[in-house]
Amino acid sequence: MPEAALPAMMRTNTLAAVSVAVGVAVLALKFAAWYLTGSVALYSDALESLVNVATALAAVAAIRYGALPPDANHPYGHGKAEYFSVVLEGVFIVIAAVSIFRTAWLGFLAPEVLQNPAAGLAVNVLASLVNGAWGFVLVREGRRRRSPALAADGYHLYTDVFTSAGVVVGLILALVTGWLVLDAILAAVVAVNILWAGWRIIRMSIGGLMDEAVAPETLERIRALISENADGAIEAHDIRTRRAGRMTFVEFHLVVPGAMAVSVSHDICDRIERALRSEVSDASITIHVEPEEKAKHTGVVVV
Q1: Maximum Cα–Cα distance for the chain, whole Å?
Q2: Which of 8, 50, 184, 209 is disulfide-compatible with 108, CB 3.0–4.6 A?
Q3: Greater pLDDT, 254 or 184
Q4: Span 84-140, pLDDT tens digits
């Protein structure tokens, strides 16, 4: 790994490690809220935080493994390891949802009066504020550092915040109306909500594991950079891209005049690579040079 990339990677590792600490703190607060009230809905909210801690630990391991440099067995690096942690997060969410559904059903059959509701709800709100603030940090840094594991963790915390807000509002209504069965109904709603969040998270990881191309706007910028920096070449075709964790892989064929010296075509390739890396961070670029009779008259025409 280039020395310049080391500080960024260390910060990513630090963020992942702090997520574990934040998750444990929030988990303690939410279980305290459940203990104070006996609320089934608050129990489901606490159980979701237990998932957060487990997935944060998985993210730490995946990010560290994904940062390892390429080796003989993994010549393209270990970046896809982060996607496996995202899949694991989705699995944990499904397990938590099943447990919540069971608890909600038991609470529906035998609703109980809530104990110390004001104190329990206040503790739960505090935990949600911590979650929301840290989720914002993770999503921002996950996008900036192109870390699927960090971003997924942040989005899951956002979901947790919205879930907690709904639980708090619902429990207040239950206390005001005396309709205690609403506690169990809210727990079931929490389970449905985290199942939906789990699907979204797994869908994001599947895209990376299936070598999904870069976003259309990024691809257009790549095409433009090739066109603007390939002076001396004729065209570029068969442009392909894919993402793997923080890495972006770009491959294409560059057609040059048949009589062009190898050193000249090599200089053109170097110029294109510098331009691409200036705007596409952590890029791995492969250029196949071809003589002009291989031109397809499609793809990118050199400006």
Answers
A1: 87
A2: 184
A3: 254
A4: 776 777 777 777 778 778 777 877 777 767 788 888 889 989 998 998 899 898 888
Q: Can you spell out the DSSP letters for the chain?
A: --TTHHHHHHHHHHHHHHHHHHHHHHHHHHHHHHHHH--HHHHHHHHHHHHHHHHHHHHHHHHHHHTSPP-SS-TT-STTHHHHHHHHHHHHHHHHHHHHHHHHHHHHHS----SSHHHHHHHHHHHHHHHHHHHHHHHHHHHHTT-HHHHHHHHHHHHHHHHHHHHHHHHHHHHHH--TTHHHHHHHHHHHHHHHHHHHHHHHHHHHHTTPPPPHHHHHHHHHHHHHH-BTB-EEEEEEEEEETTEEEEEEEEEE-TT--HHHHHHHHHHHHHHHHHHSTTEEEEEEEEEGGG--S-SEEP-
Q: Is the pLDDT of residue 10 over 60?
A: no
Chain segment 13-52, per-residue pLDDT in tens: 787 778 888 889 998 999 999 888 888 878 877 877 777 7
CATH architecture of 5-209: Up-down Bundle (1.20)
Q: How far apart are CA 83 and CA 80, in angstroms?
A: 5
This prediction has a pTM of: 0.57
CATH code reported for the domain at 216-301: 3.30.70.1350
All structural domains of the chain with their residue ranges: 5-209, 216-301
CA-CA distance, 193 to 187, in Å (whole number)? 10
